[in-house]
Automatic annotation (TrEMBL):
Pfam families: Nitroreductase. This is Oxidoreductase. InterPro entries: Nitroreductase (IPR029479), Nitroreductase-like (IPR000415), Nitroreductase/BluB (IPR050627). PANTHER family: IODOTYROSINE DEIODINASE 1, NADPH NITROREDUCTASE.
Length: 228
């Protein structure tokens, strides 16, 4: 049965009474989470070793709890394991990336990317054992062709992707957010409906034994937090 968004229905509140966590436990959990998340890195060199599929499914389920505009949940997550499909995605992505790196990006953007060591070759799309392709639903499309507008789609899907990355990392897996531009080929390869637009391709797996990452420094807390 297709999910149908609520629309124009009266507000029906339900009780929400979560147990309050003791302050000491809250502080300990926050410190542990901060330390674990500080170890998250974007990985471009993946091992082909398979990962537990249920871990990925649970991570997607976590992402799907994200807040969304008018609770319309405007996202679709496609788990791509088929090697042939991943090869098709890689070929199409590298074709677009080649054009981008040959001049479409512009020198300023290329200069910003240089410290990351990226280029048009994208082995992570076929080396990683799985891809999660995230689509945003620009509007709801009913089985009979009826449409209903979605609100704050970019913001909602962006939050969900952030929660997905966190869930994957905390479950012991590595990931990369890949956004080839344009991404229309993903709709064609994966046969998505007209109301969906590709948002990101996320390779998921374990880092390769010889994996390397850029030597980068994150901004400190006092550089990103303003207290008033």
């Amino acid at each position: 049965m297709q999910w149908t968004p609520t629309h124009g229905e009266p507000y029906r509140p339900v009780p929400y009474r979560p147990a309050r966590m003791p302050a000491a436990e809250s502080l300990a959990r926050a410190a542990e989470l901060r330390e674990r998340m500080d170890g998250r890195r974007t990985v471009r060199q993946f091992s082909p070793d398979p990962v537990p599929e249920q871990v990925v499914r649970d991570a997607v389920a976590c992402a799907a709890t994200a807040p969304s505009g008018a609770h319309q949940q405007p996202w679709t997550f496609i788990l791509v394991k088929d090697p042939a499909v991943r090869r098709r995605i890689r070929r199409a992505a590298e074709e677009e990336e080649r054009i981008s790196y040959d001049g479409r990006l512009g020198e300023e953007w290329l200069a910003a990317l240089r410290p990351l060591g990226t280029d048009e070759v994208k082995p992570h799309l076929t080396d990683a054992p799985a891809l999660i392709v995230v689509f945003q639903q620009r509007y709801w499309l009913g089985e009979g062709g009826e449409r209903r507008k979605h609100y704050y789609v970019d913001e909602s899907v962006g939050i969900a992707v952030g929660m997905l990355l966190s869930a994957l990392h905390l479950s012991g897996l590595a990931a990369l957010v890949h956004t080839p531009s344009p991404m229309r080929f993903l709709s064609e390869v994966l046969g998505r409906p007209v109301n969906e637009k590709a948002f990101a391709v996320i390779p998921v797996g374990y880092p390769a034994p010889d994996c390397e990452v850029p030597d980068l420094v994150r901004k400190s807390l006092d550089q990103v937090l303003v207290e008033i």
